[in-house]
Amino acid sequence: MASTGGDAEIWRKGMAPVSGTSSAGAPLSENRQPAEDLRPWVARLVAAKIHLPSGTKMECGMCNDLVYVRAIFNAKWSAETLDGHGEYEREALLFGQHSKFMPLTCEGDIMSAGFGLRAGAFHALFGRSAHDIVDRIEQNDLFGLMGPDFRETLTDQHTPEEWNLAMEEAIRRVIAKLDPEPPSKISTDFELAAFADPSLVLADFAEDYGISLRKLERLVKRDFGMPPKKVLRRARALDFAAQLCGVADDEEEEEMILRYFDQSHMIREFAKFFGFTPREFRSVPRPLLTITLEQRQARRLEELERLPEGAQRPWQADKS
């Protein structure tokens, strides 16, 4: 069985991305902000549809900065989680945030639709801490995606845009039933602050919100799954990884590099999250991770108002 390898031309040969490509030819997802009524709880809708050559096994991984709900309805997936090796097929999955890169493989055409819950929404909706599922995958259909109402839509006969519309309807039903309070504003603002400057001073952020540093640490651990300093370090690493994968704004490249004290600091920090030096990371195509990083960068630029919602992204191939 063929696997993805270090030669980009080998693994791209015969690949047919339906949900978009970067200007460099990497597969992307169809991702966007949710409808206005869902935005207090949902950060991003993400649908990926990529036809691969028969017998291809894609070996890659992901690093989430949100709790994700994903329906996978075609390929056979496997992952190395905190609980060990897991295998998944035609089911709805709950992905926790990641403290580091999670190895993931896919056999068959990639067809997946899902959404990232805004920081604090997992607790607001279900009363659970994000810390409970860090680096884990739960086989838990919290939004009824495998039910008869959505099973007919989540198929190869429908488009990624239609999959995202189905996700929105599933979310609406759960929110209407639970009638939850919005997530903590402190947590959602902390995420935005990490997008803008992951070198921010935590004591200053806490003071701006009139809370103690200890309370900030408790809230962030509950809603992000890890201490605030690690959330900021992960944000730096994810932004830099997006640059290496060609799915970031080139105008920010110097800013991303200057977030590190020096090259050795950058290499050390990057390797802690991804298990590779930046040079090693860049030498091998990382299609699944690139999809995750791309939608995060699109969300980041839109929420920082550096890119209008729905506008052409700097790294996207021209759709015309």
Can you put this structure into words, describing what you see?
This protein is α+β, with helices and mostly antiparallel strands and 320 residues long. It has a single domain, classed as Arc Repressor Mutant, subunit A. Helices cover 38% and strands 21% of the residues. It is built from twelve helices and ten strands. A hairpin with a 2-residue loop joins strand 6 and strand 7. The radius of gyration is 19 Å and the shape is globular. The two termini are 36 Å apart.
Query: What is the average per-residue confidence, as pLDDT, rounded to a whole number?
Result: 92
Helix amount: 25-40%
Q: CATH class, please?
A: Mainly Alpha
Structural domains: how many = 1
Q: Summarize the helix and strand pattern as letters.
A: EHEEEEEEEEHEHHHHHHHHHH
Main β sheet profile: 10 strands, mixed
Number of strands: 10
Distance between the termini: 36 Å
Enter the CATH topology name: Arc Repressor Mutant, subunit A
Number of helices: 12
Low-confidence stretches: 1-10
Structural class: alpha+beta
Sum up the overall morphology in one term: globular
Radius of gyration: 19 Å
Portion of residues in beta strands equals 15-25%
Within CATH, the superfamily carries the name Homeodomain-like
Q: What would you say the CATH architecture is?
A: Orthogonal Bundle
Give the helix/strand layout.
Layout: E1 2-3, H1 8-12, E2 16-17, E3 30-32, E4 42-51, E5 56-62, E6 67-81, E7 84-95, E8 102-107, E9 110-117, H2 121-126, E10 137-138, H3 148-151, H4 160-178, H5 185-196, H6 202-208, H7 213-224, H8 228-244, H9 253-258, H10 263-274, H11 278-282, H12 287-303
Parallel strand pairs: 1-5
Antiparallel strand pairs: 2-4, 3-4, 4-9, 5-8, 6-7, 6-8, 6-9, 7-10
